[in-house]
């Protein structure tokens, strides 16, 4: 990376990486270090919140689903301690509802796994009205249905019975849908 590219990061290049996949977070830390960041890693919500409170970073990459809770709790802690922190939320369970929730509480962007270091760097450094290009493969009808169900589920505070009632579907059917991975 050239010296002028480091300048794009600004004076504070601190980066907090929160993910419970140890090999992934280790590889990502090395890759981000090569891009000029000063990474610190955490593998749980508790460790991520502790790091955010002790040493609030300029940048953060937070996994949505962690073993001890929801990564959005870390995003809230980061926003509390450092409102200008640029946060990217990563997840293997991409859903519109969780993306909206992440952005509402202050995430800069939301990426589905697998996301490489270049995608993450671009998301962290994106400024202004820069819009991403339109998708080459738009969502299928099954995916749109799944996204709608996930949105209603999040709006009902992840209450399966209430979600099933609002969607006018059987509770067990909804549970089976929620247990499956998202369609392509």
UniProtKB/TrEMBL annotation:
Highest taxon of the lineage: Bacteria
Keyword terms: DNA-binding, Phosphoprotein, Transcription, Transcription regulation, Two-component regulatory system
Domain Response regulatory: 14-128
Transcription regulation found in the keyword field: yes
Modified residues (4-aspartylphosphate): 63
One Pfam family named in its UniProt record: Response_reg
Cross-referenced NCBIfam families: ActR_PrrA_rreg
Protein name: ActR/PrrA/RegA family redox response regulator transcription factor
């Amino acid at each position: 990376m050239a010296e002028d590219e480091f300048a794009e990061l600004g004076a504070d290049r601190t980066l907090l990486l929160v993910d419970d996949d140890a090999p992934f977070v280790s590889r990502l830390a090395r890759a981000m270090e090569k891009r000029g960041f000063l990474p610190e890693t955490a593998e749980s919500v508790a460790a991520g919140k502790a790091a955010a409170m002790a040493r609030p970073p300029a940048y953060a990459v937070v996994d949505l689903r962690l073993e001890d809770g929801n990564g959005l709790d870390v995003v809230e802690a980061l926003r509390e301690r450092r409102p200008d922190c640029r946060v990217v939320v990563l997840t293997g369970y991409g859903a519109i509802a969780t993306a909206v929730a992440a952005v509402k509480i202050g995430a800069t962007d939301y990426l589905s796994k697998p996301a490489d270091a270049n995608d993450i760097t671009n998301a962290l450094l994106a400024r202004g009205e820069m819009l991403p290009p339109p998708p080459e493969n738009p969502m299928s009808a099954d995916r749109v249905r799944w996204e709608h169900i996930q949105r209603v589920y999040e709006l009902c505070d992840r209450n399966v019975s209430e979600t099933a009632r609002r969607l006018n579907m059987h509770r067990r059917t909804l549970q089976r849908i929620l247990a499956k991975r998202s369609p392509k």
